[in-house]
Each structure stands twice: as structure tokens, then as C-alpha cells.
Specification:
Elements lengths: L5 E5 L4 H12 L6 E6 L7 E4 L2 E4 L1 E2 L10 E4 L3 H13 L3 E4 L15 H4 L9 E3 L3 H17 L1 E10 L6 H15 L31 H14 L5 E8 L6 E9 L5 H10 L3 E3 L11 H4 L5 E8 L6 E8 L3 H16 L1
Parallel strand pairs: 1-2, 1-6, 2-5, 6-7, 7-8, 9-10, 12-13
Antiparallel strand pairs: 3-4, 9-11, 11-14, 13-14
């Protein structure tokens, strides 16, 4: 790998694409050259990188000549079509869509957990689901120490997880409600302002949604833990940015709050924010735009043995997407 790689961002004008560009700059990633790619209707837009304006180009089959690393965040259908083309052209793809995550030949990576899996790539590396990544930042260190068997979780997912249009929808609906106008809907099937929707992604025959099953399926792969089980309810909440998850975890070994805190305090990429007396606990408002996830409300579960409850929050545009992708790219250079 070139020490100053030529990097492409695919889906550069989307919410995650913009964060990818910012993250490359903020972390001083040694970009030799940056190419920004998007659909034909976004081509020609200009985005800033290191004080220079870069013109967005249209993504085509011939976009990847000479590119070393491509960060994809343009949706599953684009990844399906263009990631193999990019890999064939000698480029390493870090893909943020769900398309390749469960493919046996594609590593699914959270660098703090399973960075070693990156070495097995065949040109494509997958970024996990945002809720899964944020949850595992707190769950995996506990698993290493106490051996997790299963979890029950509820997510509180920000609208930016759906994209830029959903952020606009929440803004618009809040002003419509406040000024007594009829509420208009485009992105979500129901009003999201002053409401919560127990519906993220599409429903499966089991009654769970695809998003809810990602925690179990992707969790097993990332943690190398094939018997891990997760029963999850994913909920969209009227928050702009940063997801939160309430987790109850059952472990093989007895676990105390003190032992759990000691483990979490040392965990990479995670801040312990847990002082209920001072009303200190993770909040999506304060986790937004931060690289680290936050964990708090740690307590012994009163309904099962060897159980621990905790609350974790993280910026899903960063650790849940752009930051994780750039961290994978950093590992590729090591």
C-alpha cells in the first residue's frame, strides 16, 4: 500500500460521505490525492478538503484507475455494482453499506475489536451497522472479561441514520407542529417530530426488522462468537445525531458493577460517563460529533443471574460510519 495513498470517497455528497472527508482531514490521514465520486446529479458540486475545493466527479466503471483506497457510502445497490469493479482495479474498498457484511469472504471490522481480520481481505472490507458498532464498543470488552451469552436491547436511533433528507424532515415537522400547520411526511411512514417509531428498516417474516437482526448476525461475526444471541427492538427517535442503546447482557461468569467499570474504563474508543448522583450519563446530544462512544447507567440486572444493564451512546455518523471506515483505512497503512 502506498504510504500517501490516493483515496476516493464514493457517495461524497451524502451525510456520511461529508463526514468521511472531514474525518480524513481531522485525523491527518496521509492522503496523497483525494477523488470525490457521486451520482450524475451531484457531479460538479465542490467540497472542501484541507482548504482546497475539490470538484465531485460522476461515479463510473472507469473511476478507480490509480486509486488505492475507496471509502464507499452510497447505498447497497451502488456497492454491489461498483465495489467489485474497484477491487478488480487494485483498490481496497471499505464499504459502509450492508451489502457485503455477511459475505464469508469479506471481513466485517470494528478496529478496536477485530483489526486482525483486515489482513484476510480480498479487496473489500465491510463497515458494520451503526447501532451494532456502537453497542459492541461497550459489549465486547465485557465479553472478553465475562463471556456474553445473550443480550436484550432497545435502540434509540437518530434521524441522521436515515440520511440528510430525514434531518430536514424532522426540522420541517417541528416547525409545522409549532406553528399549527398540517404535518407533511416524505421520509418516514409516520410523523417523527414529538413521536417515536418502533420501525427501523424493513420487517422480516419473524416480526423482527432487518436492523434488529443485524445486532445478532453482525455481532457474531465481529466478536467471533457464533452462539451469541440478541433480541433487539430498534426505535427511531426525534434526535438529529447520535444513537443510544439500552442493553441488558447475560454473561457466563458472575459480573459485578465494580468489575465491569474497571473493564470499561480501560476499553479503547469508549468513555465511562456514569455518575447518577451528579446526573451524569451518556446523552446523544453530548456524544454527537465525538469520536469515542460513551457508556453509563451500569447496574446489576435484577431480573436475571450474571446480568448487567448499561446504556451506550455514540455518533452514528462517526463511530457508526465515517470514523470506523477511516480507522480501517489507517489499519491498512500499518
Amino acid at each position: 500500500m502506498n504510504r500517501n495513498p490516493h483515496v476516493a470517497v464514493v457517495g461524497a455528497t451524502g451525510a456520511v460521505g461529508i463526514e468521511m472527508i472531514r474525518t480524513l482531514e481531522k485525523r491527518n490521514f496521509p492522503v496523497g490525492k483525494l477523488t470525490l465520486l457521486a451520482s450524475a446529479r451531484s457531479a460538479g458540486k465542490k467540497l472542501k478538503f484541507r482548504g482546497e475545493e475539490i470538484t465531485v466527479k460522476e461515479l463510473t466503471k472507469d473511476s478507480f484507475g490509480g486509486i488505492d483506497i475507496a471509502l464507499f457510502s452510497a447505498g447497497g445497490s451502488i456497492s454491489k455494482e461498483f465495489a467489485p469493479i474497484a477491487a478488480k482495479a487494485g483498490c481496497v474498498v471499505v464499504d459502509n453499506s450492508s451489502y457485503f457484511r455477511m459475505d464469508d469472504s469479506v471481513p466485517l471490522v470494528v478496529p478496536e475489536i477485530n483489526a486482525a481480520d483486515i489482513k484476510k481481505h480480498q479487496g473489500i472490507i465491510a463497515n458494520p451497522n451503526c447501532t451494532t458498532a456502537i453497542t459492541l464498543m461497550a459489549l465486547y470488552p465485557l465479553h472478553e472479561a465475562f463471556g456474553v451469552k445473550r443480550i436484550f436491547a432497545s435502540s434509540y436511533q437518530a434521524v441522521s441514520g436515515t440520511g440528510a433528507k430525514a434531518i430536514e424532515e424532522l426540522e420541517r415537522q417541528v416547525s409545522e407542529v409549532v406553528s399549527g400547520k398540517p404535518v407533511t411526511k416524505e421520509v418516514y411512514p409516520h410523523q417523527i417530530a414529538f413521536n417515536v417509531l418502533p420501525h427501523v428498516d424493513s420487517f422480516l417474516p419473524s416480526g423482527y426488522t432487518k436492523e434488529e437482526m443485524k445486532m445478532e448476525n453482525e455481532g457474531r461475526k465481529i466478536m467471533h462468537h457464533p452462539s451469541f444471541r440478541a433480541s433487539v427492538t430498534c426505535v427511531r427517535v426525534p434526535v438529529y445525531r447520535a444513537h443510544s442503546i439500552a442493553v441488558t447482557a447475560e454473561f457466563e461468569k458472575p459480573v459485578s458493577v465494580e468489575a465491569a467499570r474497571a473493564v470499561l474504563q480501560k476499553a479503547p474508543g469508549l468513555d465511562l460517563v456514569d455518575n447518577p448522583e451528579k446526573k451524569e450519563y451518556p446523552l446523544p446530544l453530548y456524544a454527537a460529533e465525538k469520536y469515542n462512544c460513551q457508556v453509563g447507567r451500569i447496574r446489576t440486572d435484577c431480573a436475571m443471574d450474571n446480568g448487567l444493564c448499561f446504556w451506550v451512546a455514540g455518533d452514528q455518523l462517526l463511530k457508526g460510519a465515517a470514523l470506523n471506515a477511516v480507522q480501517i483505512a489507517e489499519e491498512l497503512l500499518k
